């Protein structure tokens, strides 16, 4: 709607009649004055005082008062704007009673809405709203139970590289996230909302599902991590099968089965807690964060304390081969020594029991006897020598005690997995995830566009510094052999990091356990709500049930599904296994966040105006690359699986039809790519060998449920079956309505929407449009359409028309215009007759497609038949070519062989047949048809004489003379038949230049100058049409489709209906399906590749 200029609000526009509905009250005039003073648009609700609003209400019959507004979002705004719509001040000059669009665009919520909103909003700042929650989510159990082991395997140097990759990936993603999050309002759903509103419903749904799975599987990892801490380090006696079960690290062994059983119990307990409500879950968040911070401080304090006091835990080893402490104490007890409370050094000797254990099989006896057993310092504290020893990597295979040295599994500390750099990367990456926490809390932030960037990036940098500091601490304070002891077998089955801590190891042990409990609750709480957000968007129909919530606003069904998926992940049995799967869900999400920023920046989209300025698209591109690099480097099988899941969900949403329009960047990318491609395509005709049909489907229907609707659908089906050429398809519906009428324009939009749906139903990929015309605009609209449709080098070159109904003069006239202007515009013409008999996409035809090659047309008839045959509907048919030959059999055979060779060189499978039109007298049937044609021309002839111009037609003033008619029966058609004879081409010459310039001229058509012209010519043409029809019916009685050359139509439509159409009706009489093909001379099927 056009906006009302401010300068039009003058006193001249006001009605002087006080009773007029357009009279402005004094209060309203004051408002007008304030508009003029401000010189800009304004928010009406915020500037009207209650007294003025009450007066306006009484005048216009609006709401009772501003206090009666609804608490729902913008409900009052809509009511109040509608009220203002009845005042002349707010109406555009061409509207009556409709609210001006700029009012609804700039009004703001009323006082109650603002008060309600402010009451519900937490108004958190950077520290409490983003920074601390993000740190709490990032710092987790992996840091305590795996980072030291990563340092022991990879060495400090490669650990730094590993941390750089992980932290740089999340830092770059945080920068991209900050840019995207500050480019608009982020609602519930967090990452899902960001991706779906920027990349579209398809990608948004796909990545949203992956992000949901990431949160669900993360809950499983935290739960199993907590079970590991509980059974290994807190209460090992709870293990099913006793403490001995904790030493069997086989994936199907008792240790992992304990993880599965206790993990399931913990999952059920935490699900019950989550079902109580989100408020209860939030109580554990600060407790969890406090425990993690204290545990980290205890680690650094322990490193310093042990360097000063040298009181670190001792370990027993054969050279560098650690021995399990439980074995040493067991041998001590069996030896009956007198030490009541022995230390590890008291039992670190080659006792008979230990010797027997190593030498019972002989495999390890020689190594055992060569080395000395010694008790050494496992935790020396900060030490340069220890740091130097831990710089290089020492990757090991499963069951190895040293690199390349297989150890005794039941006595020495051996590895439970084969370690590589990328395996360690996959295991540790989940420790740096959680950067989306601040984005998910955007609804509770005082200023999200300031808090999210600063809080997220600060949290990412802080946690990165903590990880680097801890890596250095572990490398400098713990012996290399102990760092490789993942489960603390050499230190009485204690946690390695907790043993380093001061003042008590329980600070780390209990802190790490509580952190897993709190983090798992957070994931189990957020995952069902994320699933509910996806379901509420209604883009994945099968998720619709999960949009429902309970009376307490809890997504119970989503929680049940989350529980089931989490249980499946718990059955993997180990933190390392779950972490490897978890990586790919997070990395896919992070990659798409980076791609959003890249996409918007490269496309220079007008709505890309992020407040976060410290951003460049190259950083986002690097972040996306790192995400995919980590995925494929860690496990390319799982990476491909994640991509397949994403693609499957994308195609599912696309197949079901994403109804949401979110102004996504994928549409912008498609438009930009299309624009670039069109600019590369030259605006000129393609090379003849690259010619393909670019279809313009012209539809003239009433869009009802009657037969004519079926004709339109059949046209679209036929166009879809011709799309083997992969060309352009534009379907245009002609509507005889006025473009000046808004109701007609609205109807045209409805027709266009239905046309697009019908095209989708016919599986025709293309564009739909409508043309509104009146009787006097037919010629101009058709001509303008042919000349202007398309863009650049992508323009329709083939017009597909439907045979008109003979009882509809308007449709006949429109068909004539389409055909005539198609010839003038040098388009290829396809005219389908009997369109309702054409098959739909579900039919499968067998039989023959017959090509009646009357004139050489550059091979367009064969090309159209070949394209049809590529479609599954016509694939079961065989091609037959019928050529009109000479009466001389020897010449016919020569023509047939030449055509057969030519067809072979065109790489088209078809059989060639020669057909003769024998000399025959003009039959009574021909005379009768011609007489009927002459009578129809009487009216046209009178019109021509009045206009003093000679138009096209078949007329003959002496036609009723019986003697003349009788004399015509003696005529022969042999001379006219020659015009049907194909040109005999030389196959060895250039096939592209062997044809006549205009193939349509080769097939005779009713003469443009036949009014009062040669009666003999009229009879010859009609006689040949009848004879050719007889031959076609004899040769192709059961053909599934007959293709014929389309004779060139007359230049004017004056003689079109009663000359041209009658001639074509005679030519195709009794044929079920006919497709006329009229070439322009540009369509040449080349024998070249």
From TrEMBL:
Residues 1-25, 938-961 are annotated as: Disordered. Keywords: Membrane, Transmembrane, Transmembrane helix. The keyword NAD does not apply. GO terms for cellular component: plasma membrane; synapse. It is found in: Membrane. Residues 7-25 have a biased composition (Polar residues). Residues 831-1086 form the SLC12A transporter C-terminal domain. This is Amino acid permease.
